[in-house]
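Sequence and structure are no longer studied apart. As an example, we show below a sequence and the tokens encoding its fold:
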Amino acid sequence: MAQTMEGKAGATSQAPPHRRHRRRYNRGAYFYLFPTFLILAIFIYYPIIESFRLSLNRVAPFGGKELFVGFENYTRLLQSADFWNTVKVSLWFMVGTVPVGIGLAVAIAILLSVPLKRLSGIYRTLIFVPVVISSAIAGVLFRLLYNPVVGFFNHWLSLIGVDGPNWLNEQTWALVAVTITVVWRQLGFNVIIALAGIQQIDDNLYEAAKVDGAGVFKRIWHITLPMLTPTLFFLTIVNVIISLQAFGEINILTDGGPGRATTNLVYQVFVDGFVGTHFVGRASAQAFMLAILIIAISFIQFRGLGKRVHYQ
């Protein structure tokens, strides 16, 4: 009787074969995922945690001394006129880049989708080229184009009798100049994504519209744009995030000037964290405020625009 009980206990103590196989399978999966987890932990999760810790401290400008101040950095930011000016610049920059960039991309994608374009492959390549150019190179290139004396922009305007502005040194035009640069550099990505979305639309819809007598513009308005809403929604989310994180073009073209006219949140984080007296705690707090702003805008987009997306 005792031996029978011991046999049953030994049998129950051993896991079924399928469970042992599942455990070995999970260990193998975790083994292959470990390098990814390690890289994410070092370069993503640890910096986020460390940045939040620094945002709760007042850090000595040129030393390692820290003083815990809680949410004092956040409170001071909310009471600072300069902080709200950077928020305003960031939002205006987003409003200027996102609709214009997506609108141009959709128009160009529609033109490239016409089958009669024999050189459409070359056009797509040329349009995508700016995407592989770094923001620093784009900034240097457009700095030459914006030059009030030898720049091409003012030269082209003079051909039609218009005196070009001093693009980068006037508060009225500096943000416009940076907006044009970012729209140009991001245009290739937007065009390729929009073109991929257009090519997924069923041709039978266009053929039926032609039979009903619909012209080109009616087909675009009633077929292309409604069926392209998932792509437009994706482009809107991506472009909003990119516009709120723009830095390279601002750093090269204007250095945040003139008179803080182009100082957005990202550039202010750079100035506070790495320039001058190094207000690391305040810079970290601003970085988290920027993250909250991006999350809030994305949430609004999902709740507002997400309901109007038409999936096939």
